[in-house]
Amino acid sequence: MRYFPIFGEGISMCVGKGDRTKFWKDKWCSDSPLASSFPHLFRCAVNQEATVADYLSLNENSVSWSPLLRRNLFDWELDDFLELMSLLLVQKIDVLGEDLWCWKWKPDGVFSVKSMADKLDNVGGSESPARQIWNPLSPSKANFLVWTMALDKCLSRSNLLRRGIPIPDASCVLCGTVEESTEHLYLHCPFSLQIWLHSLKALGANWVLPRSVKDHLCSWKLNGLSKRGKLMWKTIPAAILRSIWAERNSRIFCNRYKDVDHVIQRAVGKLISWISTSGEFRGLGMSVLLQSCSWWRL
Ligand SMILES: [Zn+2]
Fold first, then answer.
1. How far is the CA of 78 from the centre of ligand 1 (A)?
2. Please, which pLDDT band fits residue 285 given cuts at 50, 70 and 90?
3. Domain boundary among 73, 108, 124
4. What is the largest CA-CA distance in the chain?
């Protein structure tokens, strides 16, 4: 049974002109439709049946996106919107081609048993961060976000500058000392580093943070954990990374500043809410879940 999700994961819509692909309802830019990954935004969509072509425009050689929403977003919805835009900006679209269903485990997009077998051979594990990132315990939108961080395609200020988007101040809003690159923002900023070091210390783990988010996710391993411990351990990076992202956005867009302790507590809250929906933890009750996370509390 575990192979069927892999099969489903391999099929997706390869978007060309975008006129045959439903923007919100088809699975085209990641492993689930955007309507299920971003339900709040989907509910605000002017047209829930819109195609990709409806929101896509080509300016010279670059593609821009304008998903139309019925109303202005609340502060707490901005994170979702930025995550959606991050995801859209990393899509490679051939606007002259047709929309086609494709098999993504083979370069020509055509299904073959061999390609499926090759994929299954890799199920046992590899050094790629994909298995760490595409974690069923964390929501798809959190996985998308971590994925764009691992690819260094997220909307950090350095990346916006690289895309030619003028930014009046490119410095990191968490420390204000250096330019906000992906690796600085999420790993090496003194603010973020405190969060990682606190968490690793509380877990009894001790290592130097690698240079990139991708390397960090690849090295996120700890032996001797129970089954539940492994699931929780695997989910921690997404909870921390998403909480750092939320704090960064809150400072930039809402001028609200929280300290390191608050961001750690926010990450713990996310971790608990995510794992509490999994079968392995369901029915344990909030007090047990809080106790499970006690090693991480301040
Ligand atoms: Zn910084």
1. 21
2. low
3. 124
4. 56
pLDDT computed for residue 124 by the predictor = 45
State the Cα–Cα distance between residues 290 and 292, nearest whole angstrom: 5
Q: Determine the distance separating the centroid of ligand 1 and the alpha carbon of 199, expressed in angstroms.
A: 18
Q: In this structure, which amino acid lies at residue 238?
A: A
> Which letter, b or e, does each residue of 222-242 get, where b requires 16 or more Cβ atoms within 10 Å of its Cβ?
eeeeeeeeebbbbbbbbbbbb
Cα 170 to averaged position of ligand 1 atoms, centre (Å): 11
For the ranges 112-121, 198-207, 211-220, the maximum mean pLDDT occurs at: 211-220
Alpha carbon of 176 to ligand 1 centroid (Å): 6
* Distance of CA 249 from the midpoint of ligand 1 (Å): 13
Average pLDDT of the chain to the nearest whole number: 82
The residues, any chain, with a CB within 8 Å of residue 129's CB and separated by 6 or more, are 150, 214, 217, 218
State which of 74, 94, 124 marks the end of a domain.
124
Based on the structure, what is the number of domains in the chain?
A: 2
Q: Which residues surround ligand 1, an ion (CB under 5 A)?
A: 172, 174-175, 189
Q: Cα(160) to centroid of ligand 1, in Å?
A: 16
Question: What is the distance in A from the centroid of ligand 1 to the CA of 244?
Answer: 11
Q: Strand 62-65 to strand 56-59: parallel, antiparallel, or no bridges (unpaired)?
A: antiparallel
Full domain range(s) for residue 142: 129-296
Q: What is the pLDDT of residues 132-162, one digit of tens each?
A: 787 888 887 888 889 889 888 888 999 988 8
Q: Which of 28, 45, 29, 15 is nearest to 86 (CA)?
A: 29
Amino acid at residue number 233: W
> What distance in angstroms lies between residue 122's CA and the mean position of ligand 1's atoms?
37
Task: Give the Å distance between the CA of 11 and the centre of ligand 1.
Answer: 39
46 and 147 inside one domain: no
Is 64 part of any domain? Answer: yes
Residue given tokens 């971590």 in the structure block: 146
